[in-house]
Write a structure and sequence with these properties.
By secondary structure, the chain is an alpha+beta fold. It has twelve helices and 22 strands. A hairpin with a 2-residue loop joins β12 and β13. α8 packs parallel to α9. This is Phosphoesterase.
């Protein structure tokens, strides 16, 4: 796809002075940061091979890394002593949109999205100020697909990604949704916007749009006070939202941003009340927990991993650059629509610290196979075995910390699909178990990949399978303290589904 506005002379004929200005941002950062240039984009031969298939209108789907939760200087503050409120750029995050795109490219990302905070009348700031800067950034860094959207002030909930499809009227589409439904956009404040009913109304309005956006929950347990003691975001709200718009409201961050917190003496992920586990939210990390509960209902509910980048940890923040530590990998062409399709349909795996650079999970039976986000139907007659294949690709070169991480273990996790829970508040799936753990002696090298094969015997009921892996020797991810995040790396797949008929 091509953004017709980016072809307009106003944007394509950018002055040499402006090009130098924006290029200088990246050059200055490169000179200032010892990490820059050390990431996979510079050192990983596999990444270079991956990039080679991304030019033009290639129809070939490969794993493409991205980040859908990044902040720019348009995450600002507001002076509400005036009417209308005055927007103050850089009040919370400080980098220009193009700087984030430059850094995303440097750390091997193919796609990225600025998700700036809202506020009173912020919908006009997005439309009139931020969007023109996004168009310029698309011209300056064309190698990275740059989505339009925001960190939506979700009614009754914590923040969410609101990703808008790439099309000519994308700016107007976001303006309509933000101005009508974002709980902080109204001025004066309107308490009626901060209700669960308003959230469901928003999702139904989004579902009825001809070009359907995506909504993904952010840092879902950041306000939780204990394990299974939730804060702003609850199992009931996720279920009600997904019921209202299953093709719009599709998941949550498995690994939240702010992962560099321990490097500056702060909690990983900014989870100050109850910690993350191996960098992952408790809703994802606990086997048989909320994520498995949702999957056990047959829901297509996916996890992602993001930077939530505001300010880099070497410059007073608690963040990594987009792609420096966390990546969301989507099986797609280098095309806006196909990447959104991959996110919508679960062709996703996530990882931290570039522990691996490729992951495939398939389930097979009688010559049929299904991959992440897909379903395979098997016969219930006779003995029904399902063959699982896990294929992962180790990092070649060094990660953003200059390390060469190694996978120490891979876990295969299986749970039954039993249908809707009796209670909307259910947050466990007692059928979900780690059915097998694999170490280096259990995988075999095939070309650039390692391959693990396992057979699920006598499958009698609908189920799903997912995998995770780690650089640690922890049987289950432990609650995070102030250890370096680079010493605690994990990857997670999204599930493949098995239907027994």
């Amino acid at each position: 796809m091509t953004d017709r506005r980016s072809e307009d002379p106003e944007y394509s004929a950018i002055s040499r002075r402006r090009l130098v200005k924006y290029a200088g941002v990246g050059a200055t950062l490169a000179a200032a940061s010892p990490l820059l240039g050390a990431g996979p984009a510079a050192a990983d031969d596999d990444e270079a091979e991956l990039k080679s298939g991304q030019s033009g209108n290639s129809r070939h789907r490969v794993w493409r890394a991205g980040d859908h939760h990044v902040h720019s200087e348009y995450s600002g503050s507001f002076d509400t002593s005036t009417n209308p409120p005055k927007f103050i750029k850089g009040g919370d995050a400080v980098y220009p949109i193009v700087t984030n795109a430059i850094m995303a490219k440097n750390f091997g990302l193919s796609w990225v999205m600025c998700t700036d905070h809202g506020g009173p009348t912020h919908s006009k700031v997005n439309l009139e100020q931020a969007y023109p800067d996004l168009l310029r950034s698309r011209v300056l860094v064309p190698e990275v697909l740059q989505f339009w959207g925001m960190e939506f002030d979700a009614p009754a909930l914590d923040h969410h990604t609101l990703m808008i499809p790439h099309h000519r009227d994308e700016a107007q589409q976001l303006f309509e949704l933000e101005s009508r439904f974002a709980k902080r956009d109204a001025f004066p404040n309107d308490p009626g916007r901060d209700t669960e009913a308003k959230m469901v109304e928003f999702l139904k309005a989004a579902k009825d749009m001809p070009r359907k956006p995506l909504v993904i929950a952010h840092h879902t347990s950041r306000s939780a006070t204990g394990l299974g003691v939730y804060g702003q975001d609850t199992p009931r709200e996720f279920r009600n939202g997904n019921n209202a718009a299953p093709e719009i409201y599709v998941g949550f961050e498995g690994a939240p941003g702010h992962q560099a917190g321990p490097l500056v003496g702060e909690a990983r992920g900014a989870y100050g009340n109850h910690p993350t586990y191996g960098g992952f939210d408790q809703m994802t990390a606990r086997v048989g927990g909320l994520w498995d509960s949702l999957l056990g209902e047959g829901r297509r509910w996916w996890i992602t991993a993001t930077s939530d980048s505001h300010v880099h940890w070497t410059r007073g923040g608690s963040d990594f650059w987009p792609g420096e530590y966390s990546k969301t990998w989507v099986l797609a062409r280098q095309d806006y629509a196909d990447i959104m399709d991959g996110l919508r349909n679960g062709r996703i795996w996530v990882g931290t610290g570039d522990l691996i650079t490729g992951l495939d999970l398939t389930a097979g039976n009688s010559g049929k196979r299904a991959a992440m986000g897909e379903s395979i139907t098997v016969s219930s007659r006779g003995r029904t075995d399902v063959d699982i294949e896990i294929r992962f690709r180790p990092l070649v070169g060094k990660n953003g910390n200059g390390d060469r991480p190694e996978v120490r273990r891979v876990d295969l996790i299986v749970g039954q699909i039993t249908g809707p829970s009796a209670s909307l508040d259910t947050d466990t799936n007692p059928t979900t178990k780690v059915v097998s753990r694999f170490g280096p002696r259990d995988w075999r090298r095939q070309g650039k990949d390692y391959v693990i094969r396992h057979t699920l015997r006598n499958v009698e009921a609908d189920c799903y399978a997912r995998v995770r892996g780690t650089s640690t020797d922890e049987a289950e991810p432990l609650a995070d303290g102030l250890e370096s995040p680079w010493d605690d790396l994990w990857f997670y797949s999204n599930p493949v589904f098995v239907k027994v008929r």
